[in-house]
Amino acid sequence: MAKPKTPKEPLPPIGVWAPAVALGWLVPGGGHFLLKRTGRAALLLVSITFMFLSGIFMRGAMFQPQSGDLLTTLINTGGFVGDVASGILYLVSVWLGYNQPDVAGAVHDYGTKFLVTAGLLNVLAMVDAFEIAAGRKS
Amino acid sequence: MPKMTLSHFEAAFLFALFTSVVLGVVTKRTDKERLQYGLYVFGCFLLALFGLGWLMHFGHG
Fold it and tell me: Do the Cβ atoms of A122 and A24 come closer than 8 Å?
């Protein structure tokens, strides 16, 4: 039997959640700091920053968007989005000239995955900040 | 710039640790649930890490 449909929650005004989400992108945990969830914000900041820095110290490669076959486009564009999602960490590392070529080796590979995952975890933190700002979560 | 040279286990352990903290923080609604879920996810990561490690060990013969 099909479940009864629950009414869709209306999207709150953009002014309510956009600052938290934007700050959350720029600084990992920043949205939570803005919303006065200091403990959770500190955990997010430390975890995501350490993950990103570990990726840098392992000499992980940053993705660049590439076109080609579907898999190449998906991996490189998706990886680029994941890298950029780290916010200020990504911007500073690029501004400072970090440009590690993709070379063979387990540690480099781990580094690349750490860099992308840091960004993806920051996306989760941004979604959480949105839910808190929208009043859907405490 | 310093360079980290980690073993597979050390790198996977760090990955599991950071990911578990974030998943614990963003997923649940109370601090107790967050702590429990974070530990649960971390345990699952370690279980998969050791399980796949032994699987590859025996797979290589």
Answer: yes
The predicted complex's ipTM stands at 0.91
Radius of gyration of chain B (CA): 15
Cα A75–chain centre separation: 16
Residue A10 is encoded by which pair of tokens? 């209306």
pTM of the model: 0.91
- Give me the residue from B8, B18, B26 closest to A51, CB to CB: B18
Question: Rounded mean pLDDT of A85-113?
Answer: 92
Q: Tell me the Cα Rg of chain A.
A: 17
Question: Does B21 lie at the interface with A, CB-CB under 8 angstroms?
Answer: yes
Sign, CA torsion A10/A12/A13/A17: negative
Point out the residue among A50, A51, A128 whose CB comes nearest to the CB of B26: A128
